[in-house]
Design brief:
By secondary structure, the chain is mainly β. The chain has no helices and 27 strands. Strand 9 and strand 10 form a beta hairpin. The chain is globular and about 45 Å long.
């Protein structure tokens, strides 16, 4: 791998229906593509130069050719790199969209209803999020901005109030809160509503954890060493947080059914504990204490997917200080 393996996404990039691994290598300013040979253990790696201090990436079909393209935030360069998939597991050199300073996490979603995936990202230093609207051919409009809390970080897009429009959820590391920006229905958004969570709220996942048909919010609180769960009333407002203790510095969180009971569990990367924690869902939106699995040094990002085609979810984790990707195969 490159140096400072920092972020991971899993998707099929070469059209063989087998999930591959993409990573951001922050300290070597490149992206790694690990093509899966099918067993979840053997991979062939290619590296692609990107911008200065890349932090996160997201995948989506940005140019309408049915292939998974990549958008990556280059924090030091102040831009987003777009890498177009050629279709055989290789990518064209990046072109960039200027963002201003410190673009951080990123997501790809159609937020204006034109069936074209747009790019959304957080700007930690300027306390706002940015949106680039897709013109349909892999090019994008000028950036639109919305104010958030202090030092916004993770960002997700989902309908939280049941109006079939995509809303925005953002964690605010500096103000220990989550922002909800409700869609007006035309690709624009209302001013934020905020909900308190724990100290240094960074990681974010969204899933219906209480099985009532509405998406709930899971947040990793980096300095509090906790997970916050906010249950959705169904109208875009949320109950006060329920708090669960995890390991030191929970930097990445996912909500996936890991034990086959059709209820989303919580998987968390505890960076300073060098482990991954699993909190199983009790079935009513509450969770058991975590069970942990040792991984490499300073795990910072996780993905959960069936990597070896045995119909069981596996865990893929980036280990920043080990410069490795770890794979935890489901027994």
């Amino acid at each position: 791998m490159g140096n400072g393996t920092n972020f991971v996404v899993v998707t099929d990039v070469n059209g063989d229906t087998i999930p591959d691994i993409l990573t951001v290598n922050t300290n070597s300013n490149n992206m790694g593509v690990l093509l899966n040979k099918g067993d979840g253990k053997s991979f062939s790696q290619s590296l692609y130069p990107i911008g200065g201090l890349p932090y996160a990436l997201a995948v989506g079909d940005l140019n309408n050719d049915n292939k998974s393209d990549v958008a990556v935030t280059n924090t030091q360069s102040g831009n987003i790199g777009i890498l177009i998939n050629t279709g055989n597991g290789t990518f064209r050199p990046q072109y960039t969209l200027s963002t201003g300073i410190n673009p951080n996490p990123i997501t790809i979603a159609d937020v204006n209803g034109d069936n074209r995936p747009d790019i959304l990202f957080s700007c930690w230093a300027t306390s706002n999020i940015g949106i680039f609207f897709n013109k349909g051919n892999g090019t994008f409009s000028s950036q639109s901005n919305y104010t958030t809390g202090s030092n916004p970080f993770a960002i997700e897009v989902i309908d939280v109030n049941g109006d079939n429009e995509p809303d925005i959820i953002v964690t605010n590391e500096g103000s220990n809160s989550v922002s909800i920006l409700l869609s007006k229905g035309n690709g624009t958004f209302r001013s934020q509503s905020t909900f308190p969570v724990g100290n240094a709220s960074r990681a974010l996942a969204v899933a219906d954890v209480d099985s009532n048909g509405t998406p709930d919010i899971i947040v990793g609180n980096m300095y509090a060493n906790t997970i916050s769960v906010l249950i959705n009333f169904g109208n875009g407002t949320f109950l006060p947080q329920t708090i669960y203790t995890v390991g030191n510095s929970p930097l990445s969180v996912k909500a996936v059914d890991i034990n086959g009971d059709n209820k989303p569990d919580i998987i968390v990367a505890n960076a300073n504990s060098n482990n991954v924690g699993i909190l199983l869902n009790k079935g009513i939106g509450t969770f058991f204490n975590q069970t942990t699995y040792l991984v490499g040094a300073n795990p910072t990002s996780i993905a959960v997917v069936d990597i070896n085609n045995d119909n069981k979810p596996d865990i893929i984790v980036t280990n920043f200080d080990s410069n490795t990707v770890g794979v935890l195969l489901h027994c």
